[in-house]
Design goal:
single chain; three-stranded antiparallel beta sheet
Length: about 90
């Protein structure tokens, strides 16, 4: 699927210029690989889940892809122990 073309249609036909991608690792990875992500927001809860076979934040990027640099934009912490990290994609 041509994600850049889909975003172009959303902008042209519906005047949408920004949206949140709240998907699983594969859809997140697809948008990231297409260069369509400008900010990453991660909420880390006070718990651990290390089960095998669970999706990550970004799955499916080619092995040849280089890591994508991020710039920390904001950090917020909560009384329950959660931390909200916001990064700009460089």
């Amino acid at each position: 699927m041509d994600l850049a073309k889909a975003m172009e249609i959303l902008a042209d036909e519906f005047n949408i210029d920004r949206l949140a991608i709240v998907g699983g690792g594969k859809i997140n990875g697809g948008f990231l690989e297409a260069g369509l992500v400008d900010e990453i927001s991660i909420l880390i809860g006070a718990g651990v889940d290390g089960r095998t076979g669970q999706p990550s934040l970004f799955d499916g990027r080619p092995e040849s892809s280089r890591p994508i640099a991020l710039q920390l934009k904001d950090v917020a912490s909560f009384d329950e122990g959660a931390v909200w990290l916001r990064y700009l994609v460089k």
